[in-house]
Amino acid sequence: MRYILSIPFLAVVVAAFNILGVAGLMMDAESLYFDAVLPSGAEFYLKVGDLFVVAGLIALFFEILKAARLGAGTIVDHMLSTATFIVALVEFLLVPFCGTATFFFLMIMALIDVVAGFSVSILSARRDYSVSHNDGGGL
Q1: Distance CA 15, CA 53 (A)
Q2: Cα gap 90→121, rounded to integer Å
Q3: Nearest 5 degrees, angle CA 17-CA 18-CA 19?
Q4: Secondary element (H or E) of residue 32
Q5: pTM tops 0.85
Q6: Residues 27-54 pLDDT 10s
Q7: Using an 8 Å Cβ cutoff, are 37 and 44 in contact?
Q8: What distance in Å separates the CA atoms of residue 58 and residue 72, rounded to the nearest whole number?
């Protein structure tokens, strides 16, 4: 069960983007999803790609929370987050429907997940493990 929780939430968002792209539905990423006129008179609109960015931000929040825990699944979580970033980077460079600003932001979120995950884990481990500096020269 703990290894299932190690699956990065950002990988799910990237996979959903890829599934829509392979199905040919990602060409509509720039199509309008929602629009409204605000009380100020400004027009507010969301595109399909914007929803992926919002989903990625929510996933990134949960990934940062997962990085704060220590345990056996932490290393697997870091490896899968790194793999998610590498796959997203390769797709951004090589897959035509992934060469969008929306997917670029998802890839940057995956990079932030990797860096923040390692940073939070290192800081948590440093706080848990303290080394005493003894002036006597001994251990």
Answers
A1: 13
A2: 26
A3: 95
A4: strand 32-37
A5: no
A6: 666 677 788 899 998 999 888 888 999 9
A7: yes
A8: 24
